[in-house]
Design a protein that fits this description.
This protein is an alpha/beta fold. It has helices at about 25-35, 50-55, 60-70, 90-110, 140-150, 165-175, 215-235, 260-275, 290-305; strands at about 5, 40-45, 75-80, 85, 115, 155-160, 180-185, 205-210, 235-240, 280-285. The chain has one domain (about 5-305): Arginase, Chain A. β9 (about 235-240), α8 (about 260-275) and β10 (about 280-285) form a beta-alpha-beta unit.
């Protein structure tokens, strides 16, 4: 079976203004590269139209109303100091969330075996009622809630390898025994959360904080702890918050991972979880702000998804 690639042109409408690191080109370079490669093992798909009822599985109704009323008719507005929005951001935001729904449905309907969602804005810093850190809706959390509510899964794992801690995702599932949240991240660093002491009500949070300057060998050794927790939890479905800002060339952090590491990380997640989830894995783009590193690393990430049987 093929690997799903979920994307939409609406990401281009989310204008964050000149000089903002979460720029339109982040997704453009990824999509243009995959179009050029023309891999026949990719199944291209558009995001699903997402309903308020689906989003309410994750976000407070008042927050959804706030978001919908925040998009300006012209110019720019902001949800917080980092999270800039423009008129076209609305479509991009709801398509980003809809991408993970399309990916999950596609796997459930056997259209493809696994999937990568190349969308923006990212999501993992957004909690139940507050956008932050470039994030407006929490895409991966919406996906996890959808798996629990629509498809009645009882064990969903979220693995977040973005260099920044996925504090929003952690908040949303902190007291949910059906979701295991695993995060590797630079610490102490933005957003300031993610210590080993944050374990979740049901010991369902596994934070692996690592210092600035962490290199490939140090990271991959530490990642074994994440895989150990994954084996213990035995997830029925795995979601990945795929941030590529831990690359050595990324301007927003100080990890020293190489492009090839993202292939290795992805392959290890797939191999570790295969016997429990039968390869049901959806990955969605989070961070990554060096355009060449982002293009190369997403290619290797998707290579691992395509190759997996």
């Amino acid at each position: 079976m093929k690997t799903g690639l979920i994307t939409s042109d609406t990401f281009q409408n989310h204008n964050t203004g000149p000089g903002h690191p979460e720029q339109i080109a982040r997704v453009s370079v990824i999509i243009e590269n995959f179009k050029k490669l023309d891999n026949k093992n990719l199944f291209w798909k558009k995001p699903a139209i997402i309903t308020d009822n689906i989003i309410k599985g994750t976000h407070d109704a008042d927050y959804i109303d706030l978001v919908k009323s925040s998009f300006p008719s012209k110019g720019f507005s902001s949800l917080d100091g980092d999270t800039i929005i423009s008129p076209g951001s609305k479509e991009a935001t709801f398509d980003a969330a809809g991408s993970i729904i399309a990916a999950i449905d596609g796997i459930q309907n056997k259209e493809f075996k696994n999937a990568f969602c190349s969308v923006r804005p990212p999501g993992h810093h957004c909690n139940q009622n507050k956008g932050a850190g470039f994030c407006i809706l929490n895409n991966v959390a919406i996906g996890a809630s959808y798996l629990l509510n629509k498809y009645k899964y009882s064990k969903v794992a979220i693995i977040d390898f973005d260099v920044h801690h996925g504090n929003g995702t952690q908040d949303i599932f902190y007291e949910n025994e059906n979701v295991l949240f695993i995060s590797t991240h630079q610490y102490p660093y933005y957003p300031g959360t993610g210590s080993e002491k944050e374990k979740g009500k049901f010991n369902n949070v596994c934070n692996i904080p690592l210092p600035a300057g962490t290199n490939s060998e140090e990271y991959l050794n530490a990642f074994e702890s994440a895989l150990k927790r994954l084996r213990k939890f035995q997830p029925e479905f795995v979601l990945i918050s795929a941030g590529f800002d831990s690359h050595i060339n990324d301007p927003l952090a100080q990890f020293k991972l190489e492009t090839e590491d993202f292939y290795i990380i992805t392959k290890r997640i797939l191999e570790t979880s295969k016997k429990f989830c039968n390869g049901k894995v959806v990955s969605i783009l989070e961070g990554g702000y060096d355009l060449q590193a982002l293009q190369d690393s997403t290619k290797r990430h998707v290579d691992a998804l395509i190759e997996f049987d």
